[in-house]
Structure to design on (392 residues):
């Protein structure tokens, strides 16, 4: 068996609304080829996203660019997996895990960010259908993106969208070369296609696609989402025994008091980022606002009577909902925000920081808005005291 992988060079810069299927066919013919049934086209997610208009403009000033990047990554994040300094490893709504939720600025002109397609599998299906309509051949489409891998250096391309073939070649129940029955082997053919295409596309050559011929396409109409391991099968998502996990989810008991030692700023930022990554109805997010020293007394007065531990804590955080977009406060947002607040408390607990929540009744919220100098439409939901617990 032999497989050929041909780079499809010479494609123009793709812009929103471009006919990507036609551009790909022109690139195939420019390479001196014609499509055939059974071929596989590997296309970078970047050109798919550009054609679909999945772009975010960047301002000219460095501070503004950094702010837009942070906000965009947060909007694309379903779960923060790890954080170190400015680097965020995040899970997207597609179930993909990568740096900055796969938000990318490379090969984007320097003035914008490129997001993943909203639904890469649907993008692959549309592209496959358009190519078949134009050319009449049965061609599978793999939409690719670059990911790092835990415990391995370097990056490689993987399939983030797929149409026209199965994602996996299931060898379970077949015999190996020694006649031994295979029990767990599933070959990720779609990922292998993406990696093979990356060998000829390169990272800086502006070759966004490759044609693969001779690939043993798995039967079926799979999707790239088939390659995402279900959370319950993920041995590395949680650690310890079931009792350990349940105890963690139950959270630490409220602290009897707080010691004077300061709380590490990075721990507060990580916990706030985890809470802010929880998706809420209407696209809103929980905002964790540090209460400045000058506003502490006014915030405590607004929440009176508050537990004594609130005043003694070295850190006071306000959990807030920002203004709803277009005046559309989605139903159930405040209730769902309770889950985000719980995520904040769990994250602080996981980082060794004790926390105490005091919800803010609706009648007290205007006073908190004034004390914190928040803008119109902000909804403070409560105060969280954080610190190192006193030893009993």
């Amino acid at each position: 068996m032999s497989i050929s992988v041909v780079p499809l060079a010479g494609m123009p810069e793709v812009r929103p609304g471009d006919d990507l299927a036609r551009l790909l066919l022109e690139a195939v013919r420019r390479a001196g080829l014609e499509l055939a049934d059974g071929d596989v086209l590997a296309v970078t997610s970047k050109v798919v996203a550009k054609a679909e208009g999945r772009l975010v403009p960047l301002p000219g000033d460095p501070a503004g660019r950094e702010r837009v990047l942070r906000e965009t990554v947060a909007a694309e994040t379903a779960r923060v997996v790890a954080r170190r300094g400015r680097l965020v490893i995040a899970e997207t709504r597609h179930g993909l895990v990568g740096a900055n939720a796969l938000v990318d600025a490379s090969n984007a002109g320097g003035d914008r960010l490129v997001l993943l397609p909203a639904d890469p599998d649907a993008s692959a299906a549309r592209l496959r259908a358009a190519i078949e309509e134009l050319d009449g051949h049965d061609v599978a489409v793999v939409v690719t993106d670059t990911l790092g891998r835990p415990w391995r250096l370097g990056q490689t391309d993987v399939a983030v969208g797929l149409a026209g073939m199965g994602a996996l070649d299931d060898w379970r129940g077949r015999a190996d070369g020694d006649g031994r029955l295979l029990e767990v082997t599933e070959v990720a053919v779609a990922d292998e296609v993406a990696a093979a295409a990356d060998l000829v596309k390169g990272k800086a050559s502006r070759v966004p696609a490759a044609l693969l011929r001779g690939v043993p396409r798995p039967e079926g109409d799979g999707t790239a989402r088939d390659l995402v391991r279900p959370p319950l099968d993920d041995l590395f998502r949680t650690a310890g025994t079931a009792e350990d996990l349940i105890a963690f989810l139950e959270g630490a008991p409220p602290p009897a008091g707080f010691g004077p030692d300061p709380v590490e700023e990075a721990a507060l930022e990580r916990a706030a980022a985890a809470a802010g990554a929880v998706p809420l109805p209407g696209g809103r997010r929980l905002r964790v606002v540090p209460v400045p020293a000058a506003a502490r007394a006014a915030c405590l007065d607004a929440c009176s009577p508050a537990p004594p531990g609130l005043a003694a804590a070295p850190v006071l955080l306000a959990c807030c909902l920002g203004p709803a977009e277009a005046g559309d406060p989605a139903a159930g947002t405040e209730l769902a925000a309770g889950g985000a607040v719980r995520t904040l408390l769990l994250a602080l607990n996981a980082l060794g920081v004790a926390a105490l929540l005091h919800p803010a009744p609706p009648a007290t919220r205007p006073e908190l808005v004034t004390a914190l100098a928040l803008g119109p439409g902000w909804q403070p939901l409560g105060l969280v005291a954080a610190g190192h617990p006193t030893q009993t």
Confidence is low (pLDDT under 50) at residues 238-249. The CA atoms of residues 295 and 371 lie 6 Å apart. Residues 333-350 form the longest helix (18 residues).
